[in-house]
Amino acid sequence: METVELSKEFVELGGLNVVNAWILEAPDDDHVLEAVSAISLACHNNPVGSRRAVKHSIVESLFSLLTKPVRLGLKRRALMALSSIALMDPEATLRFSNCRGFQLIAEIFYTAEDCMQKSILNFLISATTVTKMYCAGKLLVSSGIVEALCDAAVDHRDKEIRMNSLAVLMNIAKSGKEELVAVRGTGIVSRLLRIPRHSEAEMDAKMEFAQVLLEKSEEGIDTAAGQEFVAL
Fold it and tell me: What is the DSSP string of 157-169?
């Protein structure tokens, strides 16, 4: 499945059904990991595969792995597969939410190792892509993860985690008035202003975040939003 064509053929031949059954019945984590990897490849940049994955309850199967005492690498691979599906089919995000997935993600994120946090953030970026799923921002605000994302965006020692946390927060802020208020209510604006200047890429990310707040101000969503970023 190194190409989209092969992935589509795999899906058309019923491969997703086979690997989904293998997730539930495999004798050990190594075999489950192979099945999850196959799902991730089959659904990557493949809308048909992603729709089939949603239809055949693969989202729920992948979510179940996040709740089990399996090894960290398997949970990360499950999140990777969920990211691939969510990017191609917005209903995957709703299915994940219906499993109380965002609440689980919020609980995991607080105490997760760096590698797991990166996997979570990659999934959240997929789930909160504004053109795909507007309600994801509201769901994340309800889950209680916004504060943790703000802490990571400001204080985390890892540059990738800081930048991806800010990317998720930006998507949340874009999604609606209540979501923007929730993000700004954490005090992230003033906190970002106080941190040392990092790399040029991080400064660009902060400026993009500021632009989102300013644009929402112009739309009348929050008349004060973004003004504190002028000095950035």
Answer: S-HHHHHHHHHHH
Backbone angles phi, psi at 44, to 5 degrees: -65, 120
Token look-up 């400064």 returns: 203
- Count the Cβ atoms, other than its own, within 10 Å of residue 201: 10
Q: What is the pLDDT of residues 89-147, one digit of tens each?
A: 878 888 888 888 888 888 888 888 999 999 999 989 988 875 555 577 888 888 889 99
CA-CA distances (angstroms) from residue 144 to 41, 83, 110, 183?
31, 20, 11, 11
pTM for the model stands at 0.78
Which tens digits make up the pLDDT trace of 42-76? Answer: 888 888 888 888 888 999 999 999 988 888 999 99
Tokens matching residue 143:
């889950």
Closest CA to 61 of 25, 9, 104, 88: 25
Q: Which residues are CB-contacts of 70 (< 8 A; sequence separation ≥ 6)?
A: 29, 32
Record the tokens describing residue 48, joined without a space.
């048909």
Contact 116, 73 (CB under 8 A): no
Name residue, tokens 């930006």.
Answer: 170
Residue 4: pLDDT band (50, 70, 90) is low
What is the spatial distance between Cα 226 and Cα 166, in angstroms, rounded to a whole number? Answer: 15
Query: Are the beta carbons of 89 and 58 closer than 8 angstroms?
Result: no
Burial of 142 (0-12, 13-18, 19+ CB in 10 A): middle
Task: Return d(Cα 22, Cα 62) in angstroms, integer.
Answer: 12
User: CA 89, CA 14: separation in Å to the nearest integer?
Assistant: 19
